[in-house]
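Raw record, unedited: Protein distantly related to ferritins
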Amino acid sequence: MKNIFIDVPSQALFLARRRAMSLSGAAVLSAGAVALLGGRDALAAGAKMSAKDLEADVRILNTALGAELEAVAAYQVGAESGLLSKGVLPVAVQFQGHHKEHAQAIAATVQKLGGKPVAAKDKYAFPVEKLKAEADVLRFAAGLERGAISAYLGAVPLFADRALAQVAASILGDEAMHWAVLRQVLGDNPVPSAFMS
């Protein structure tokens, strides 16, 4: 198994590309989405929606929030497993940090929309008994990231508020990058097809 995280130039290039993509992604978010995620309620309130549409969007956001909280817990299991090498552990923790940021932004948006954010479960049913080597932890994480991609792909067209759809698409891109990096480390083709489903 090739470990690309030990190669400092590769990691620096990856982080620089990720920062550039994050900055360019932030520039294309709509004013409503930026307002919701940035805390400017007055600007966000400019987009009027029916109570039914608002309720549906909050339900979708809470589903996404639940998945993000599960990912945070899963990366914690991986980090505490003692199975991740010194080169891989910081990246896993970084990915966990991304999921924490997603969760915080989504929870704040649910509250701004008048909903109650779901809470993390007390316990998740992770297959810890099957995690015996670093590759097992990475495959587990890759599977969760792949599931997140599918969930966000399904959610994006369902949002009544297109600004929220854009934010979900932005998060989807982050999940796809996580999945590709994990596949690369495992020696799998990082981008096995031209389309995600």
